[in-house]
């Protein structure tokens, strides 16, 4: 009997008794339980449990993937775009590095402008940027924070090749004839001092390599060509920035590149130098404005708070964060208007939807179904068609005003202005979102037993008291569900406000759509969307704390 109880294969009766939950099995004996094929029972059960979990995961995998790609990833991308600002450093790497040591303060004029090394790096960066056709895109990005700078970049890109000066190249060749050969740059890049001692030159060489790949094709090896003068200018400014001891070591050491720099300390003062700052200012006076350079330096970090500051009508200046001038503030007004109108629309839907839902819940089944079809009928019509119909109805020469004039409610000269303002937005959106309030209310009201009201009346309550004390509290979950639906839907609407709202009835979502499709300022659109998302979540959290999301019912 003991041997049979130890295996499931010997006798079925003892095996079932040992595996049954009603029969306690000592912990020391659990390892003795095996399946009919001799495998430990605990391991088989764990494997079966893993298979069940995997099967359940595969069943919900399509839904998880759909939520991931259609909801989580787009929101994550939006949040990232609201702070991402890599275009400045990616387009002007040498300029951004050279600007790190520049501080303009409150100074103005030429003395406050960056030094010649910064302008030399700008010339090199801009040469590649105009080749890749990305300098105008950078100008557009900077133009969001510094109006007018876009034209500066556009104009400069067309005249950069005029700055290609060979005088500095000739000076290096005079120092050492090896600089006329492409191999000299290979020697320099293979030396121990590269790139630590030549940071500007390393960036310039990288720009040159990308320029050759774009201009000549990927098959051309940049090492077989001599760099353009901008790379020599970067080398010149690196040598100028070196301490005297480093320069001496560079020209007298035993490095592979030492022969190229022999006598450079004595010859460097006689080099012709560069005049890129003067040339840039001649191309466009904007390069002589300190504010433009402050903007470039301010926007050089890859992570920025500029979009969020602009989304709340603020800006970062030399004095820190400050609000924009009164006549330039727009977004806080739009946020306040969006919240106000969304609450008004939600309240209007409650006032209009509650009686309709009450009627649906208390009519006969046949009459209720017929009326419910009429409630659902707008869903069979395009949103654009319904909104356009309201434009026809609400305009001053529209149907509603014609009826009011015919009924002598208003005279022909005093026709009501109900379009292209808040009134038009409230009316049209209340009509469009009303079914989303009626359906949850109707579903909840159908679950309220009429015996509750009859019991209250039998105890002496009036109709109003029975409704207020008994019936209405039972329908609050439906009001909560409908309010959440209507509020969240209305706060993100932009088609209807765009068509009937005019200038005073548009929402913040209209501005988001404008920045996405027209101005292409996706960063600001993402910041506005992120703030709107936070506001909605804040309202949702507040509602949960005050009412309780568990009390919301859809029937």
Structural commentary:
With 555 residues, the chain is mainly α. The chain has five domains: 1-39, no CATH class; 48-81, no CATH class; 93-162 and 276-304, no CATH class; 166-270, no CATH class; 331-551, MetI-like fold. Helix content is 63%, strand content 1%. The chain is built from 27 helices and two strands. The protein has helices at 2-6, 12-19, 41-81, 87-91, 93-98, 116-132, 135-145, 149-157, 167-175, 183-189, 199-216, 229-241, 244-252, 264-267, 276-283, 290-298, 306-311, 331-362, 365-376, 383-394, 399-406, 422-445, 450-458, 463-491, 495-500, 508-517, 522-546; strands at 314-317, 320-323. It has a two-stranded antiparallel ribbon. Strand 1 (314-317) and strand 2 (320-323) form a beta hairpin. The longest helix has 41 residues, at 41-81. The radius of gyration is 37 Å and the shape is elongated. Mean pLDDT is 86; it is low at 1-23.
């Amino acid at each position: 009997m003991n041997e049979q109880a130890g295996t499931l294969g010997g006798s079925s009766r003892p095996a079932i008794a040992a595996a049954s939950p009603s029969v306690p099995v000592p912990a020391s004996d659990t390892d003795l339980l095996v399946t009919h094929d001799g495998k430990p029972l605990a391991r088989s059960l764990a494997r079966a449990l893993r298979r069940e979990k995997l099967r359940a995961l595969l069943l919900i995998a399509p839904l998880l993937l759909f939520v991931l790609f259609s909801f989580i990833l787009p929101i994550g991308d939006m949040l990232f775009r609201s702070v991402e600002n890599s275009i400045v450093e990616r387009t002007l790497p040498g300029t951004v590095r050279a600007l790190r040591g520049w501080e303009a303060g409150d100074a103005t004029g030429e003395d406050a402008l960056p030094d010649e090394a910064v302008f030399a790096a700008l010339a090199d960066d801009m040469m590649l940027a105009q080749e890749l056709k990305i300098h105008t895109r950078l100008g557009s990005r900077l133009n969001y924070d510094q109006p007018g700078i876009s034209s500066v970049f556009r104009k400069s890109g067309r005249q950069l090749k005029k700055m290609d000066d060979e005088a500095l190249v000739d000076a290096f060749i005079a120092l050492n004839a090896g600089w006329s050969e492409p191999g000299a740059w290979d020697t320099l890049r293979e030396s121990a001092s590269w790139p630590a001692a030549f940071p500007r030159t390393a960036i310039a060489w990288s720009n040159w390599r990308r320029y050759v790949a774009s201009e000549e094709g990927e098959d051309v090896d940049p090492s077989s060509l001599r760099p353009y003068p901008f790379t020599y200018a970067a080398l010149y400014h690196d040598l100028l920035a070196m301490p005297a001891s480093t320069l001496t070591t560079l020209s007298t050491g035993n490095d592979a590149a030492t022969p190229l720099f022999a006598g450079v300390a004595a010859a460097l003062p006689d080099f012709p130098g560069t005049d890129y700052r003067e040339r840039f200012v001649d191309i466009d006076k904007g390069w002589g404005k300190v504010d433009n350079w402050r903007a470039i330096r301010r926007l050089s970090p890859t992570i920025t708070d500029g979009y969020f500051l602009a989304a709340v009508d603020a800006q970062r200046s030399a004095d820190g964060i400050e609000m924009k001038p009164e006549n330039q503030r727009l977004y806080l007004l739009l946020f306040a208007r969006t919240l106000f109108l969304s609450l008004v629309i939600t309240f209007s839907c409650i006032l209009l939807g509650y009686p309709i839902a009450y009627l649906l819940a208390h009519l006969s089944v046949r009459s209720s179904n017929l009326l419910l079809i009429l409630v659902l009928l707008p869903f069979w019509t395009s949103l654009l068609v319904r909104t356009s119909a309201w434009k026809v109805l609400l305009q001053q020469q529209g149907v509603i005003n014609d009826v009011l004039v015919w009924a002598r409610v208003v005279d022909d000269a005093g026709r009501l202005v109900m379009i292209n303002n808040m009134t038009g937005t409230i009316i049209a959106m209340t009509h469009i979102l009303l079914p989303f309030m009626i359906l949850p209310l109707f579903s909840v009201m159908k679950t309220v037993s009429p015996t509750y009201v009859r019991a209250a009346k039998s105890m002496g309550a009036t109709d109003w008291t029975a409704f207020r004390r008994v019936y209405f509290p039972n329908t609050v979950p439906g009001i909560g569900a409908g309010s959440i639906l209507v509020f969240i839907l209305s706060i993100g609407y932009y088609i209807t406000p765009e068509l009937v709202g005019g200038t005073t009835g548009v929402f913040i979502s209209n501005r988001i759509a404008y920045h996405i499709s027209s101005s292409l300022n996706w960063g600001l659109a993402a910041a506005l969307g992120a703030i709107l998302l936070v506001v909605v979540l804040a309202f949702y959290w507040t509602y949960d704390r005050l009412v309780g999301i568990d009390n919301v019912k859809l029937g």
